[in-house]
Amino acid sequence: MSTIVLYSINRTAQTTVRQCLIPYSKGASRVDSHLSVFLKTSVRRLTSLPRVRWVPNSTGVRFMSLGTAGRTAPGRTRRGAVLVAGAAATVAGFVASATHFQRAEMASVIPKTEEEDTEIAEKCKTFMSPPCTDVKVLQQRKEEMCTRMEMLIMETQAEFCRALEEVDGGKFKVDRWERKEGGGGISCVLQDGRVFEKAGVNVSVVFGNLTEEAAKQMRSRGKVLKGKDGKLPFCAMGVSSVIHPTNPHIPTVHFNYRYFEIEEGDGTKQWWFGGGTDLTPTYVNKEDGAHFHNSLKEACDKHHPQYYPDFKKWCDRYFYIPHRGETRGIGGIFFDDLDSPSQEEAFSFVKSCAHTVVPCYLPIVQKHLNDPFSPEEKDWQQVRRGRYVEFNLVYDRGVKFGLATPGSRIESILMSLPLTAKWEYMHEPPKGTLEADMLEVLQNPKEWV
Fold first, then answer.
1. What pLDDT is recorded for position 180?
2. Catalytic activity annotated for this protein (predicted)?
3. Bridge partners, 173 (sequence order)
4. Of residues 244, 249, 254, 368, which has the active-site annotation?
């Protein structure tokens, strides 16, 4: 099967694309039916893009943009995307690192997938609440990344909340809030439920100007930010959740997926994605750990084979409590400052991760739903929750950024804290106990896949 590669280069190749794609999709005997339909239905959209040409290659099907991520030049728009079909579902090239931050031209308007073509107003009816941004504004800007990301985080919130409600039997309290400096959010909280002592799933979409403290945090991560008259306009959005179950045999789970955009003094924009999903059990369960990590690995492998191993290590490093010499839990994946290989590919990866939240966690909840537990096991859970609080208040980057941002909603920022926790003086589990086994794993992170 020939490879079809579309590069955003020139305007003269549109006719060639029409001539080559349609016969190819009709006549290739070895092309599966799904790919054939994809090619037929994509011709009109793809060939309407400027600066496109068709180039044959070896195997698979790839549509690629030469523009890479990180920066948009004022007055210029580059349109192009990476769409992967059939057996060629891999993303070439990039592995994010803690210090990497690429700056290059990138489009702010990007073609949407067929899934996203569903009418925005209809999709919004399925959310826990109307989105933070007015629906009419979202419809007017439906191809912008900010709109696409807001729709994704609203969808993720609704999907996860409804899955938890079905298990617990309770209902989330939906709390809309506004930030006078710009933007707002939707906090969904279920408290004192049958299964979940405290469950929170928050969405926020905020904008304004970065404070010097927030800008300092970003510069410390290697970002070069050039404001104008001391101002750095920004837009930040994300979905964040922490679930604290009552039963100590059901693990705590956390996930967060976010998008950040900064406009510099000369009108250029820097953008990046970040996030991850991680598990914090009270007791070691190898099957649970394997299921959780395998689910995340499958989502990562759709985009690049190095994503899971690299982001797993990053997670172990990030969720580490130095003053205790232990990790917060058994990890998962974590990444930040993701601005490559393109905005479209980065968004596609984040979307895959967000869609994995329910299948990686809910089966574990169902498995332990009726596990009996003793007062001693509950006490150990309370001690472990104390460690959770220590990490979130002392080290978590999102909490620190939120507290440094004027107008932030403290209740939403501290939603991640458990309803109850415990700090025992000089607490150390006896050797040979299940509690000691858990501590050993936290002090020496292991491979679960």
1. 86
2. coproporphyrinogen III + O2 + 2 H(+) = protoporphyrinogen IX + 2 CO2 + 2 H2O
3. 189
4. 254
Is 256 within the bounds of a domain? Answer: yes
Same domain, 163 and 127: yes
Q: What is the pLDDT of residue 222?
A: 66
Does any domain span residue 81? yes
- Give the separation between CA 122 and CA 302, rounded to whole angstroms: 29
The answer on 140 and 84 residing in a single domain is: no
Domain end point (choices 27, 54, 88) = 88
Mark out the alpha helices in 261-342 (DSSP H runs).
286-301, 307-318
Spell out the residues 6+ positions from residue 74 whose beta carbon is closer than 8 angstroms to its own.
266, 267, 268
Q: CA dihedral in degrees (54, 89, 91, 346; nearest 10)?
A: 100
Contact 185, 204 (CB under 8 A): yes
Q: Determine the Cα–Cα distance for residues 426 and 258; give it in Å rounded to an integer.
A: 38
pLDDT at site 220: 56
Q: 88: exposed, middle or buried (C-beta count within 10 Å: 0-12, 13-18, 19+)?
A: middle
- Domain containing 145 — which CATH number? 3.40.1500.10
362 and 398 both lie in a single domain:
yes
Contact between 38 and 88 under an 8 Å Cβ cutoff? The reply is no
Q: Does some domain include residue 142? A: yes
Rounded CA separation 137/144 (Å) = 11
Confidence of residue 79 (pLDDT cuts 50, 70, 90): very low
Query: How many domains, the chain?
Result: 2
Q: H or E segment at 123?
A: helix 120-124
Residues 310 and 293: their CA atoms lie apart, in Å, by 13
| Catalytic status, residue 254 | yes
Residues 6 or more apart whose CB falls under 8 angstroms from that of 166 comprise none
Q: Can you tell me the distance from the alpha carbon of 233 to that of 160, in angstroms, rounded to the nearest whole number?
A: 31
- Show which of 71, 88, 105 is a domain's final residue: 88
Q: pLDDT tens digits, residue range 119-173?
A: 899 999 999 999 999 999 999 999 999 999 999 999 999 999 999 999 999 999 9
Concatenated DSSP letters of 14-31 = HHHHHHHHHHHHHH-TTS
Shared domain for 307 and 199, answered yes or no, is: yes
Ramachandran angles phi, psi of 175, nearest 5°: -125, 110
Assigned domain for 122 exists = yes
More confident residue, 44 or 267: 267
Sequence-separated (6 or more) residues with CB below 8 Å from residue 208: 179, 181, 182, 183, 233, 234, 406, 407
Average pLDDT over residues 190-198: 97
- Nearest CA to 225 out of 239, 214, 241 is that of 214
Domain region containing 45: 4-88
